[in-house]
C-alpha cells in the first residue's frame, strides 16, 4: 500500500458585523486557495441558514445553535484535510470559544479572523439593506446595532477593511495562514 502526504486542513473563521466584508474576503481567499490546489470549502452563513439551520431564528440561543452546527461541520472538514473558510457573524464569544475547543480536541487548527469594520462603515455599505430596515423599524435585533456583538479578545488577525481593498484583506488572511504553515 502506498501512502500519500495528507493535506493539513484548518478552519478559518471570519467573524464581524453584517456588511463587514466576511463573504467578500472568504470568496477571494477561497478562490486563491483553490487555484493553488488546496481542498477548500466556504461555509457561508446565508446558505447554511437555508438548509443546515433552517428554522432557526436570531435569538441568542438560535444564534448559538447555528454557530455550533457550522462549527461541527467545519471541524469535520478541517480534520479531513479541507481548508474550511467560514464567513459567519458568530456574535457571542462563548459560542466561538466552544468551536475553538471542539477543534482543540482533535488538534485541528482554528484560525479566528476579526473582520473589524466599524458599524458606521458597515451601515454605509449596507449590502443587504439590513441597517436601513433597522433604522426604519422594519427589523430589530440587528447585530452591532440593537443586538450584541462581542469582539474577539485574541484573534489571529484583525482586519480594518475600511482602510484596505478586498484583495488586500484576503491577502492578509492568506499571510496569516502561511505564517502558521497552513498554505
Ligand atoms: N477590504 C474589504 N474587504 C471586504 N469587503 C470590502 C472591503 N472594502 C470594501 N468592501 C465591500 O464591503 C462589502 C462587504 O459585503 P459582504 O457581503 O462581504 O459582507 P458580510 O460581512 O458577508 O455581511 P453579512 O454578514 O451581511 O453576510 C462588499 O460590498 C465589499 O465590496
Ligand atoms: Mg456574508
TrEMBL record:
Keyword Transferase: yes
Superkingdom of the source species: Bacteria
Coiled coil: none
Pathway: Sulfur metabolism; hydrogen sulfide biosynthesis; sulfite from sulfate: step 2/3
EC number from the UniProt entry: 2.7.1.25
Stored CDD domains: APSK
Pfam families listed in its UniProt record: APS_kinase
Keyword Kinase set for record: yes
Residue ranges of domain APS kinase in the record: 8-159
Residues the entry annotates as binding ATP: 16-23
Catalytic activity field: adenosine 5'-phosphosulfate + ATP = 3'-phosphoadenylyl sulfate + ADP + H(+)
GO terms, molecular function: adenylylsulfate kinase activity; ATP binding; sulfate adenylyltransferase (ATP) activity
Keywords (A to Z) from UniProt: ATP-binding, Kinase, Nucleotide-binding, Phosphoprotein, Transferase
Record's GO cellular component terms: cytoplasm
PANTHER family membership: SULFATE ADENYLYLTRANSFERASE
Family statement drawn from the similarity comment of this UniProt entry: Belongs to the APS kinase family.
Function recorded in the entry: Catalyzes the synthesis of activated sulfate.
Protein name: Adenylyl-sulfate kinase
Annotated source species: Streptomyces davaonensis (strain DSM 101723 / JCM 4913 / KCC S-0913 / 768)
Amino acid at each position: 500500500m502506498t501512502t500519500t502526504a495528507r493535506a493539513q486542513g484548518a478552519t478559518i473563521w471570519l467573524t464581524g458585523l453584517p456588511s463587514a466584508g466576511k463573504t467578500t474576503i472568504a470568496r477571494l481567499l477561497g478562490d486563491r486557495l483553490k487555484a493553488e490546489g488546496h481542498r477548500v470549502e466556504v461555509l457561508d452563513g446565508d446558505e447554511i441558514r437555508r438548509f443546515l439551520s433552517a428554522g432557526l431564528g436570531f435569538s441568542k440561543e438560535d444564534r448559538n445553535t447555528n454557530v455550533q452546527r457550522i462549527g461541527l461541520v467545519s471541524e469535520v472538514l478541517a480534520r479531513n484535510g479541507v481548508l474550511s473558510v467560514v464567513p459567519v457573524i458568530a456574535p457571542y464569544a462563548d459560542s466561538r470559544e466552544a468551536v475553538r475547543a471542539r477543534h482543540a480536541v482533535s488538534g485541528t487548527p482554528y484560525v479566528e479572523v476579526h473582520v473589524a469594520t466599524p458599524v458606521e462603515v458597515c451601515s454605509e455599505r449596507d449590502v443587504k439593506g439590513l441597517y436601513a430596515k433597522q433604522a426604519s423599524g422594519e427589523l430589530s435585533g440587528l447585530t452591532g446595532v440593537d443586538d450584541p456583538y462581542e469582539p474577539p479578545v485574541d484573534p489571529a488577525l484583525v482586519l480594518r477593511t475600511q482602510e484596505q481593498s478586498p484583495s488586500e484583506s484576503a491577502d492578509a488572511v492568506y499571510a496569516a495562514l502561511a505564517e502558521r504553515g497552513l498554505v
